[in-house]
Amino acid sequence: MAKQILVTGGTGYIGSHTVVELQERGFDVVIVDNLSNSQIEVLDNIEKITGIRPAFEQFDLSERDLTDAFFKKYSDIAAIIHFAAFKAVGESVQKPLEYYRNNMGSLMNLLECMNKYQVPHMVFSSSCTVYGQPDVLPVTEQTPRKEAESPYGNTKAICEDIMRDYCKANEAINCIALRYFNPIGAHPTALIGELPVGVPNNLVPFITQTAAGLRDELSIFGDDYDTEDGTAIRDYINVVDLAKAHVVAIDRMLNGKSKDNYEYFNVGTGSGYSVMQLVKAFIKVTGVNLNYKIVDRRAGDIEKIWADTTYGNNELGWKAEKTLEETLASAWAWEKNVRGLK
Ligand code: UDP
């Protein structure tokens, strides 16, 4: 019988792509999402891609009683992938308690239920934000973590620590934290992708919305960084490649391959691109003109970061495969589909 995987936040951006990859690998998926930042129609589009409609339960995982009731109902879950969390850096500065309560509360409820209902495995969405501005680049898993720049970033560091400590106290529990770099792009079918509510905070959705005519121009935050063209550098990872890393992490745990019951991996491409390089690549790939201007640096932004993926590539047998160009083309195809453009 197919193993059942609980995907929390499964109607969200990375979650929905991961559900597709899990289903295509033959896993049975149940999604839990409170739809606070995603739409129920995502289920229709997952079904269009895979031919299978995942089971779905709508509730808030920071509510312990509801989480308990869920595990009583779904008694056969083999592993969890935990995406559900608040993720807006700026909002977290305004509403720190909401971020701590939601992101840490839901993780702790899940961990307790893992013990109580004997669900041993969890993959957790962490972030390269835990490294801050590293002293040495690229960053390996050994690179020391730094003080978080925002409550959001701090929830990722604290959640990692909670898992580490819980795994130490509970040998039967097995967790893998994946530290994502910058996920971008969309599924090649253009049926699922990133759908930010309101004005996008992230670079690529802002670019595609500008190209689609929803925004007048892109603001590039700073051109006086210590980089070749002065704009900031990130490691942009294709969302489908990223989704596949989760399936690989699940396989690692289900097959007893983990070296420790708490592990963490960088998930990036190993290459850094500047904001200006990305903008130029977008224009070249899509042939769309993009208005942009240089403005001041954005508060809290780091100058440059990219991953050393050696450890993850060797241990997980996973590697990012898509090029930046095809990833940007997929982001544009998705935006056009959402806006009904040709
Ligand atoms: N960025 C930008 N204009 C925007 C949004 C982002 O110049 O409208 C820059 C941002 O300063 C950073 C990079 O793009 O250098 C990636 O930002 P994003 O918010 O996508 O991800 P972050 O790395 O901050 O998590």
Q: How would you sum up this structure, described in words?
A:
The protein is α/β, with parallel strands linked by helices. Helices cover 40% and strands 17% of the residues. It is built from eleven helices and 13 strands. It has helices at 13-24, 42-50, 64-73, 89-94, 96-116, 151-169, 203-211, 239-254, 275-286, 310-316, 324-339, and strands at residues 4-8, 28-32, 55-57, 77-82, 121-127, 174-180, 182-184, 218-221, 233-234, 236-238, 262-267, 273-274, 292-295. Strands 3-2-1-4-5-6-11 form a seven-stranded parallel sheet, with helices on both faces. Helix 6 (151-169) links the parallel strand 5 and strand 6 (174-180). Helix 1 packs across helix 8 (239-254), helix 3 packs parallel to helix 5 and helix 7 packs across helix 11. The radius of gyration is 19 Å and the shape is globular. The N and C termini lie far apart (43 Å). Residues 182, 201-203, 206, 218-221, 232, 234, 275, 298, 301 line the site of uridine-5'-diphosphate.
Residue runs with pLDDT of under 50 for 5 or more positions: none
User: What's the total helix number?
Assistant: 11
Give the termini separation.
Answer: 43 Å
Q: Tell me which ligands are bound.
A: uridine-5'-diphosphate
Number of strands: 13
Rough shape? Answer: globular
Largest sheet features = 7 strands, parallel
Considering DSSP H and I runs of 4 or more, what fraction of the residues is helical? 40-55%
For the biggest β-sheet, the strand order reads 3-2-1-4-5-6-11
Radius of gyration: 19 Å
Percent of sequence in beta strands: 15-25%
Overall structural class, as computed from helix and strand content, comes to alpha/beta
- Give the H and E element order: EHEHEHEHHEHEEHEEEHEEHEHH
Rounded average pLDDT: 97
